[in-house]
Amino acid sequence: MELFHGLAALFSGKGRVFPPTLSTRARVKGRALIKRFYALNGISIVFLMENILILYAIANAVSDPLIAVLSSFVHLTMPFMIVGKHLVSKIGGARTWALGWFLRYVFASFLIVAPMAAPHVPQAVVSAIILVAAFGFALFRSMGVVATSPLEGEVTTPENRGAFLAGNHLRVTTTQIIAMLVIILITRYTAEIWVYQLLIAIACLIGLYASTVLARIPESQMPQVSARIPLGQSFRRLWGQKQARGLLFAWSGGLVSFMMVIPFMMIAVKNGYGIEDSTVLLFSLILLIGGVFSSVINGMIADQVGPRPILLLSTAGLLLPAGMWAVAPEIFSPLLVGVAFFIAGYCKFGIIVGLNHYFLSSIGDTDRVGSALFIRVFSGVAAGLSGTVIGGGLLSWLEFSGFSGMDGYRLYFRIIIGVLVVMIFLVRSLEKLNEWPLTNVISLFMAPRDLYAIHVLNRLRNQDDSGEDARTVKRLGTIGSTIPETELREQLDSPLLTVRVNALQALGNMSFSRKTEDAVLNQLSCGEHTTAWIAAEIVGKHHIERGVELLRWGLGSSDHFLQGKCMVALVRLGDTASYAQIVSLFKSSDNPRIIIHGAKALSLMEGMSALTVILRKSIDPELPASVVDEVLTAAAATVSLEQRWYHFLQKYNKNRYVGATEFISDLDGVAFSKEDISLFAKMAGQEQMLPHFTRTLENLAAVSISPVALEIRNLLSDIGIDHIPVKTAFCIALILSAVSDRAHPLTGLPS
């Protein structure tokens, strides 16, 4: 049924009526159809385009210079985009694209005839058949491709455009890899011409079906409106825009770069090293694998870093494979050649993605058809002439000059390195859009954490489920990368509390800018009973001194979460004017959250005067056991022993005897006598020994000259040793063991 609708859309004589703009649903449908087309097109490309066509031409005895010309047809035929522009104005972009693709595969089918004619006609005729079929194949592609960028712009938005373009190339390369594996397996058994004829036939059938998919892509009136602008006016508008004018030359530079490198790498492998077809195709597979990596990584980062850095790095990256071939060894090295093909594939697809992304980001809807025409024609002619005149001519001159085999190919690539440098400067002249500095993009490839953060960030941009938003924002927080800062800040405006909470917590795990600082302070002032408590924690953690007044206000809030966080944050900021109020809140409150955070705040205050306040709170019989543990941990923290105390609590709360025994053994020989230790051990199994234990603590505090010991002695005197809970007694023992001046256990004199 879909095939019938596609054929009807392609060959119907009636013109379609296009809406002024596309709905969201139509954009989704359009993206789905384009994705399907690219997946199918990937198979056709492998079975027919580029490397297979080169090998097919070589198998049919076509000379190297003519193969260079054949490889340039895809660019030399770009002027036929003018025909495509005229068709878009009449029948729309989708139908024009579809018609061009249908006719190109009709023409491609003539390639099958060449070997059949070979026994009956001169070699020149066989070469001519192949060249004419390849020329028609490229010509009708040019006619249809004028609608490609306008339609891709129609079905995308700035938020998903880069990822969509790279995703299409990923689909193409994925299907190409599968198809290439099939070809390699076949050619390992036989590489006869009939095999290539069969592959070309399959490619044509798939391509004809793919054209029916294109015919059903929805579009608005905009491509037709753009196509109806006269050529002269389109050119003046393009030339009058600095970005578009720069893209005209940069697009040429990008295409010329890989046109001068990749096809000639394939010729060098086949004719320079004399490698069999199945091995040559293996390197084509490596080229595609490089393209897959490029599509995945660039699809991940394109919308974040911008198109120009990707384009510049990809163009410059071709210097690496060109340099490898410039010094290629005489003996075939599979590893070196494989690396060269991988890098070349990565760079080629990076250039394609970068150019298309820059085009859609810088050219307005009404100018896309005309601008695409001139840019593609100009760059196509430049790339085609480069491949034909410079590439093919250079190979012919080198052969004429006596440079044969790998000597000729090495010299070719040494000359091409100079051409690549010129192309890099052309690409570099592009006007900057909203993009990252190039050094930041390079460092991004060295930081897997940041790459993963961008991947998660892309998921956040492309989903509209509130639950998923909250989970994705939370995941961004665990990564710790600073890249998602802007998007996380925007999530603070979410209507859902869980999303705002997760966004704040994520921001708290990274360094952030002044804008985010302002957003956090806004949450602190307006988020009472919701997000203000998290904002207060971030203000203290990041030492945002501008938040002191808001934190002081938070001390009087009825939001106990906020009160507790403000107590700690103010101490972190060193706001000594608030200390008295914080101590008062801690002493008077019976709210567990205020007590826990108050104890933490007191433990951070300079000096030891807060220690006895914390310990006194721990003997409150109304406090839950979990709160007592928090308070005593804060007391231990005043002398930097919170970790030892934490480990004691872990064991003591599971098994009191085991925990107490191990704790006491740690004190053996540290400020306590053997008799004291024996007494502590008995207390571990007999709680009635507690008064004797606390009396020992009182005696130790009395003989110590430490200020902390003096505070503890006063505390024990005020409270009375009979009212000290077991855990508090153990905590005091730990503190005294740490601050003791190591008095002699019997005499009390310094040792």
Describe this structure in words.
There is one protein chain. By secondary structure, the chain is mostly helical. The chain has two domains: 2-11 and 20-444, Up-down Bundle (Growth Hormone, Chain: A); 607-751, no CATH class. The protein has 40 helices and no strands. Helix 6 packs antiparallel against helix 8 (123-145). The longest helix has 33 residues, at 368-400. 50% of the residues are buried. Mean pLDDT is 80; it is low at 741-751.
Topology overview:
Elements: H1 2-11, H2 24-48, H3 50-59, H4 64-76, H5 81-91, H6 93-108, H7 113-117, H8 123-145, H9 148-154, H10 161-189, H11 193-214, H12 222-227, H13 231-240, H14 242-259, H15 262-272, H16 277-305, H17 307-317, H18 319-326, H19 334-362, H20 368-400, H21 405-428, H22 438-444, H23 448-461, H24 466-479, H25 485-490, H26 497-508, H27 514-526, H28 532-541, H29 548-555, H30 560-572, H31 579-588, H32 592-604, H33 609-618, H34 625-637, H35 642-652, H36 656-667, H37 674-685, H38 690-703, H39 707-719, H40 726-739
Helix pairs in contact: 1-11, 2-3, 2-10, 2-11, 3-4, 3-15, 4-8, 4-20, 5-6, 5-8, 5-20, 6-8, 6-11, 10-16, 10-19, 14-19, 14-20, 14-21, 16-17, 16-19, 16-23, 17-19, 17-21, 18-19, 18-21, 20-21, 23-24, 24-26, 26-28, 27-28, 28-30, 29-30, 30-32, 31-32, 32-34, 33-34, 33-39, 34-35, 34-40, 35-36, ...
Brief overview:
The protein has 751 residues and is mainly α. It is built from 40 helices and no strands.
**CATH fold description of the largest domain:** Growth Hormone, Chain: A
CATH class category of the largest domain: Mainly Alpha
The biggest sheet, with number of strands, parallel, antiparallel or mixed sense and barrel status, is:
none
The average pLDDT is 80
User: Count the strands?
Assistant: 0
Uncertain runs: 741-751
Beta content? under 5%
CATH superfamily of the largest domain: MFS general substrate transporter like domains
Supply the number of structural domains. 2
Structural class, judged by helices and strands? Answer: mainly alpha
End-to-end separation: 98 Å
* CATH architecture assignment of the largest domain: Up-down Bundle
**Shape type:** elongated
List the total number of helices: 40
Q: What is the CA-atom radius of gyration, in angstroms? A: 37 Å
